[in-house]
């Protein structure tokens, strides 16, 4: 008899572990444990989603004839870590081997590979996670062929490999990337589809109660929980997105609107990351919508690029560069994360809106994460370790393999440009162009150094001044430095920015 341990982000019926094992003989282990629930202060909705999806998944496995040993969360249990549960089960029902599918996070994978077999006195057999288009080994081979590891070139290879939106080896529409067509602002039309909210069943309600009781100190509101916690509901979420949002996904991908939390985005990342959906079926559905004439090419290409391109690429970078990647800090940043990242209380409307969305739903769309909360952390020099912990804690879709490269690479430029050829730094001008936040804000987006000036403005130029040695020679930033050279009020900008940073919690 063999054990198969299935983790909270491996809830897929075609998981390598399940394909490998035999339901007539082997035993599946699943456990809700303190260590996984508290290695960062996860948003209560993230914990509720994972526990409830785990419980539903275990029930489905049992209905299919699998023997499942399930450990529900208990605060004072001697089972605090996943290994503790395997150990207890091994004493009750000795197995010959423990089978596991490769973990999403280095922390746990490293522990399993290096310690579990000797600690458990049990061989551990680790299978590749085949839910992705590109394995870490394939990514390494790709990376060995390139001097700079740009997502765009990786993405083109993945398009050729999978055949998505390809015709006779050429991209449909003769263009690989329609990003430049995807930057419209949204001012009320087309109307926004109502987000799909799922009715809670008894398992969801029990878990929500448990999370409320056991994790009261974790920031975030669990009362609004309405995520799908079964595969069948996650498939409904996918259908809802394809039918209602996908046609406009491309046009408004970069837009931000006061009071609107997800616009035309898919809200599918929590399901993709915990296993309720797999990337291939999501991309297949999007491509089919193009071929049936339901959605235009710029939307479908833009959407598939996020999954086939960005999602696979950041995972490749993660496994290529860990564990060193986690401590990158090329800009030598050390400022404390401002308190408002945890309280949500700030006068800056753009930031307050992102925090509201984050704490109410365990969600913010990409541009909110990158160009608002991320941009502010970049401009104000926050310690990468503090901001990476924040992003890992507050989103329902957050797992280190995807969160870390996005935070350290894309947002903080901490990896020195491995992931992004220039920092995604922006002043209030960009935020005003892409959103209507500034209309609702007490700060003045038009000025730089007045008492009520938009903080992003002076911080933006101060960032360029502080890091001139690193960025002036960057060919993609030449225009910015030409503009900087023409500024008459550089000294006032520096003084104003320094003053803001010294009282950052007051903003
Ligand atoms: P959509 O806009 O509908 O996009 C479709 C899908 O594409 C997403 O579901 C997601 O699977 C994928 N995707 C899009 N952008 C990215 C990206 N940059 N990297 C990887 N996949 C992408 N995504 C996570 O899944 N988990 C994280 O922990 C996470 N942390 C992030 C941290 C920062 C600082 C930033 C800037 C981005 C992060 N992202 C993360 C990427 C992105 O913001 C989310 O995937 C997206 O907002 C999820 O919402 P959605 O499903 O509505 O996405
Ligand atoms: C995120 C998470 C949480 C909150 N709780 C559990 C848990 O109790 N049991 C479990 O198996 N997995 C959980 N997870 C997901 C794991 O943290 C995830 O599998 C690892 O980080 C590896 O990616
Ligand atoms: Fe954000 Fe500045 Fe606009 Fe206020 S004025 S919403 S702080 S960009």
TrEMBL record:
Keyword field contains Magnesium: no
A Pfam family annotated for this UniProt entry: DPRP
Keyword Transmembrane helix set for record: no
GO molecular function, one term: lyase activity
Keyword terms, alphabetized: Lyase
UniProt-listed PANTHER family: SLR1343 PROTEIN (PTHR38657)
Protein name: Cryptochrome/photolyase family protein
């Amino acid at each position: 008899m063999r054990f198969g341990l299935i983790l909270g982000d491996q809830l897929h019926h075609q998981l390598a572990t399940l394909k490998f094992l035999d339901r007539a003989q082997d035993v599946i282990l699943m456990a809700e444990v303190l260590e996984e629930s508290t290695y960062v202060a996860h948003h209560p909705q993230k914990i509720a989603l994972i526990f409830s999806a785990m419980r539903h998944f275990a029930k489905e496995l049992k209905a299919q004839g699998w023997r499942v040993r399930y450990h529900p969360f208990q605060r004072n249990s001697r089972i605090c870590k996943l290994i503790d549960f395997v150990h207890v089960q091994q004493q009750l029902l000795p197995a010959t081997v423990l089978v596991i599918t490769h973990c999403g996070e280095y922390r746990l994978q490293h522990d399993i590979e290096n310690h579990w077999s000797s600690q458990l006195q049990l061989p551990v057999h680790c299978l590749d996670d085949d839910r992705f288009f590109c394995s870490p080994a394939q990514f390494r081979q790709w990376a060995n062929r390139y001097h700079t590891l740009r997502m765009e070139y990786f993405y083109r290879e993945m398009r050729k490999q999978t055949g998505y939106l390809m015709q006779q080896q050429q991209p449909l529409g003769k263009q690989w990337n329609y990003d430049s067509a995807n930057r419209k602002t949204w001012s009320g039309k087309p109307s926004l589809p109502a987000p799909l909210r799922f009715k809670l069943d008894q398992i969801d309600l029990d878990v929500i109660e448990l999370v409320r009781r056991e994790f009261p100190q974790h920031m975030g509101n669990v009362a609004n929980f309405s995520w799908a916690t079964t595969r069948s509901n996650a498939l409904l979420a996918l259908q809802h997105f394809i039918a209602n949002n996908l046609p406009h996904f491309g046009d408004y991908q970069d837009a931000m609107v006061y009071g609107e939390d997800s616009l035309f985005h898919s809200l599918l990342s929590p399901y993709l990351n915990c296993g309720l959906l797999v990337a291939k079926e999501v991309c297949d559905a999007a491509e089919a919508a193009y071929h049936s004439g339901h959605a235009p090419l710029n939307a479908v290409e833009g959407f598939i690029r996020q999954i086939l391109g960005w999602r696979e690429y950041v995972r490749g970078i993660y496994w290529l560069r860990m564990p060193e990647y986690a401590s990158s800090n090329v800009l030598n940043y050390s400022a404390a994360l401002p308190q408002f990242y945890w309280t949500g209380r700030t006068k800056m409307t753009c930031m307050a809106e992102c925090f509201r969305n984050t704490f109410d739903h365990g969600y913010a769309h990409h541009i909110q994460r990158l160009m608002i909360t991320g941009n502010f952390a970049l401009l104000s020099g926050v310690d990468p370790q503090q901001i990476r912990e924040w992003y890992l804690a507050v989103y329902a879709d957050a797992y280190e393999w995807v969160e870390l490269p996005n935070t350290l690479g894309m947002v903080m430029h901490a990896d020195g440009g491995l992931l992004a050829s220039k920092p995604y730094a922006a002043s209030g001008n960009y935020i005003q162009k892409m959103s209507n936040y500034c209309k609702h804000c007490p700060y003045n987006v038009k000025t730089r150094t007045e008492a009520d000036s938009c903080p992003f403005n002076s911080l933006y130029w101060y960032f360029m001044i502080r890091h001139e040695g690193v960025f002036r020679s960057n060919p993609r930033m030449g225009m910015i430095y030409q503009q900087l050279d023409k500024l008459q009020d550089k000294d006032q900008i520096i003084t104003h920015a320094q003053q803001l940073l010294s009282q950052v919690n007051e903003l």
